[in-house]
Amino acid sequence: MAKRKAPDLSVAGLKVVITAGAAGIGRVIAEAFADGGAHVEVCDVAKDALADLKRKRPDIPGHVADVADPKAIARFFAKATRRGLDVLVNNAGIAGPTAPIDQIKPEDWHATIDINLNSMYHCTRLAVPLLKKAGGGSIINLSSVAGRLGFPLRTPYSATKWAVVGLSKSLAMELGPHKIRVNAIQPGIVRGPRIDRVISARAKATGITFEQQRALLLSKVSLRTDVTPEDIAAMAIFLASPAGSRISGQALSVCGNVETLG
User: Fold this and answer.
1) How does pLDDT run across 61-115, given as a tens digit for each residue?
2) Is 168 in contact with 143 (CB distance < 8 Å)?
3) Residue 74 in domain
4) Which residues 6+ apart lie within 8 Å of 41 measured at CB?
5) Where in the sequence is the domain holding 80, given as residue range(s)?
6) 121 is catalytic
7) pLDDT digits (tens, 9 = 90+) for 162-217
């Protein structure tokens, strides 16, 4: 019997743009693509993180850009896509406020929408003509398990992450004839400083300790564990590789099966 070929997870030679790619999940995704031989360029608003990226990974060009500013995004794309584009990873996002809806300031609500959702529109509208020119490609949008579950006290965040799923599914239908795949990744409790800040804010809002809040969150995960940025990067690599070439319009949770956020 002929031996079956292993799944092709190669991303070598792909031209990849990642927003908020100098730190956190975005940094790990950028490094995974670069380690796989892709040509990666990132933007970030954090100059210190960009400086650290330049020192440690000079093979990953970084650009200062605030994704809430359409003009800044346009300048970034003009530089980062000179050689074309095969993959866009819309990773930028903020946690937003932790508070009851009647205590959330309008400016905090709008800031969350600008960064978590509007930035994806601004990046995608610039990416699509380039992906069409390339004969197809992949758009990977970072949603969250808060985009499939209700999340009390985090309504702006959850609302944007549900919207990301709707955006991704709609774009998959719109862009499929052009061989452009669009998917959303829904991370769960991702190990690192960001989730620690989220846990601290929620613990304060609900009057319990950090350790109690963390234990409560993990008790609602079927596997009773958090996930790592490397787990998210692995899914992004899969979706961009030939192994994921028939997958589009999906919201894929990488979370150990978070059962509820309530």
Assistant:
1) 999 999 999 999 999 999 999 999 999 999 999 999 999 999 999 999 999 999 9
2) yes
3) yes
4) 16, 17, 18, 60, 61, 62, 63, 79, 80, 81
5) 15-190+227-254
6) no
7) 999 999 999 999 999 999 999 999 999 999 888 898 889 889 988 999 999 999 98
Confidence label for 252 from pLDDT (cuts 50, 70 and 90): very high
What whole-number distance in Å separates Cα of residue 112 and Cα of residue 119?
A: 10
| Domains in the chain, number | 1
The total of other beta-carbon atoms located within 10 Å of residue 176's CB is 14
Q: How many CB atoms lie within 10 A of CB 84?
A: 13
Sheet containing strand 87-90, edge to edge, reads 62-64, 39-44, 15-18, 87-90, 137-142, 180-187, 251-254
Is there a domain that residue 196 lies in? no
> Which of 68, 234, 73, 251 is CA-nearest to residue 168?
251
User: Within a domain: residue 123?
Assistant: yes
The CA distance from 160 to 169, in Å, is 14
Whether 27 is covered by a domain: the verdict is yes
What CA–CA distance (Å, rounded) separates 161 from 150? Answer: 11
Catalytic residue among 157, 186, 202, 241: 157
Cα 124 from Cα 148, distance rounded (Å):
22
Predicted confidence (pLDDT) per residue in 223-243, tens digit:
999 999 999 999 999 999 999
41's tokens: 């360029």
CA distances from 138 to 115, 147, 166 (A): 21, 20, 17
What pLDDT, on a 0 to 100 scale, did the predictor assign at position 1? Answer: 67
Residue 180 sits in a domain of what CATH number? 3.40.50.720
